[in-house]
Design brief:
The complex is a heterodimer of chains A (about 240) and B (about 220). With about 240 residues, chain A is of the alpha+beta class. Chain A is about 35% helix and about 25% strand. Chain A has 2 domains: about 1-75, Nucleic acid-binding proteins (OB fold (Dihydrolipoamide Acetyltransferase, E2P), Beta Barrel), CATH 2.40.50.140; about 85-230, de novo design (two linked rop proteins), CATH 1.20.1440. Chain A has 7 helices and 8 strands, in the order βββαββααααβββαα. The N and C termini of chain A lie far apart (about 50 Å). The chains are: A alpha+beta (about 240), B alpha/beta (about 220). Chains A and B meet through strand 5, helix 2, helix 3 and helix 7 of A and helix 9 and helix 10 of B.
Chain lengths: ~240, ~220
């Protein structure tokens, strides 16, 4: 019998049959993992099985390659705390969908767990959640092998060349594969006075990097929840 | 035993395998059992019990059921206005002149509409959205009945009440609909918090959070 117990965040849950739920979680030591939750559609459990919930999970299966099933103990319901704020809710759904679609299953990612933990705490409480979300996506890109050379991002000019992943000066000719660096991601940028437009610009920049570098090689589109976050700020993907 | 259980267990048990194949799916009894076991809440054994009950009581069970199913199949249709199921189109609720036409309650499905009607708490009209936005299930705005909602909201509605699930998907949909109708009419959502008969001890912290955020002044003693 294969078995482990760990803390985890619920990334997604979808009904299976009339009572069960197939859940995908991001656990602290075992990475992204799927499992069946018996009785997961029961009224008493629905409140806890919302994406973003922090759970203590016990996973068990006869063989390691099987789906297995979870026994859960609820800890904190992050999703329930942001339901009334459309921007925070969109950011939460986007972060969870990005992790669910980009991380390999059953690969330990303790850094991803720790950074999601920090992000969810910020979404719950702090006003400046936008900067925290951008920081989290930069960390995710770094975790996936596409860390941004942010120490070379100047205050308000320059482009990121997507082909050789380097920063080039504004004065040089802009090749097709370059993206203008958003002010909010530049080193030394102050986030306190950032406008909604600045945040939208940075979200569009990072979404384009995710779409081109992370999801296109996997033959997938950017998750719908990430597009929804862009739509809330009235921006789309940059043309590259 | 459910279908799933039968599938797992009977493969290794010759007696169970013979039992599950006792009726061929081509014969009438086997087909009846198969169709009944597709209904929610019924596994193969419950479906077999039901089939036996119906077949042994033709006059009291099977024939009235066949008539009711046939009548429902012929007469029940979706209301073109609100998406309710009724024998008329527009449905009885849309045709009821005593209802407040300025109030429109948006629900995910017909089951929610029937639950609200059963409670008698709302006397306006409804709009069935047909689900919630869900990336996992491939439901985008195009698969929901939002165009019809916008058209109805523009007509004579002063308030749209969003009675959608208090889930991440339900509230994402609520915010999407609220953005669509922002310039058209007032949009409200149902309150969230402590249910009647509920105790804080048994609630998840998301519900407690919502309950605290929407707390109100207790003014019952003011008139004493």
């Amino acid at each position: 019998m294969q078995e482990w117990r760990d803390e985890a965040f619920l990334l997604s849950a979808r009904p299976l049959g009339e009572r069960g739920v197939v859940a995908h979680v991001l656990s602290r030591s075992h990475g992204r993992c799927a499992g069946l939750i018996h009785g997961g559609q029961a009224q008493s459990r629905r409140g806890w099985l919302q994406p973003g919930a922090r759970l203590e999970v016990s996973w068990r299966a006869r063989l390691a390659e099987q789906l297995g099933h979870f026994v859960i103990e609820p800890l904190i319901s992050h999703g329930g705390r942001v339901l009334s704020d459309p921007d925070r809710l969109a950011a939460l759904a986007s972060a969870l969908a990005l992790l669910d679609n980009s991380l390999a299953e059953r690969d330990p990612h303790p850094e991803a767990f720790a950074s999601l933990e920090t992000l969810l705490q910020t979404l719950d409480s702090a006003d400046d959640w936008g900067a925290a979300y951008l920081e989290w996506e930069c960390r995710l890109l770094s975790l996936l092998g596409y860390g941004l050379p942010r120490e070379r991002f100047a205050e308000d000019d320059g482009f990121l060349d997507l082909e050789n992943w380097s920063v080039i000066a504004k004065a040089s000719l802009r090749p097709r594969s370059c993206l203008a660096l958003p002010g909010m991601l530049c080193s030394g940028a102050r986030h306190g006075g950032a406008s909604r437009r600045d945040l939208g610009e940075a979200l569009s920049f990072l979404a384009t990097l995710l779409a081109v570098r992370v999801f296109r090689p996997l033959d997938r589109d950017l998750p719908a929840a990430r597009y929804n976050l862009l739509n809330r700020f009235g921006v789309g993907l940059a043309e590259v | 035993m459910t279908d799933n259980g039968a599938a797992n267990g009977s493969d290794k048990n010759p007696a169970a395998r013979r039992g599950s194949n006792f009726f061929s799916e081509d014969d009438a009894i086997g087909n009846l059992i198969r169709m009944l076991s597709r209904l929610p809440g019924l596994g193969r054994r419950s479906a077999t019990r039901l089939a036996l009950r119906l077949l042994t009581d033709r006059e009291g069970g099977l024939e009235p059921l066949v008539r009711a199913l046939s009548e429902a199949s012929e007469s029940v249709r979706l209301c073109g206005e609100c998406g309710n199921l009724d024998v008329r189109d527009p449905c009885g609720i849309c045709l009821d002149n005593e209802r407040d036409t300025g109030l429109l309650c948006v629900v995910e499905g017909v089951d929610d509409l029937w639950a609200l009607e059963r409670s008698g708490v709302f006397h306006g009209r409804y709009h069935v959205l047909g689900g919630t936005l869900s990336a996992l299930d491939g439901r985008d705005p195009g698969s929901l009945s939002v165009d019809g909602l916008r058209r109805r909201a523009r007509a004579e509605v002063r308030e749209v009440i969003l009675a959608l699930s208090a889930t991440v998907e339900g509230q994402t949909t609520a915010h999407y609909v609220a953005d669509l109708l922002r310039d058209v009419c007032e949009v409200t959502v149902l309150g969230q918090g402590l249910p009647v008969g509920g105790s804080p001890n048994y609630l998840d912290d998301g519900t407690l959070f919502a309950a605290f955020r929407s707390r109100s002044l207790l003014s019952g003693g003011a008139g004493l």
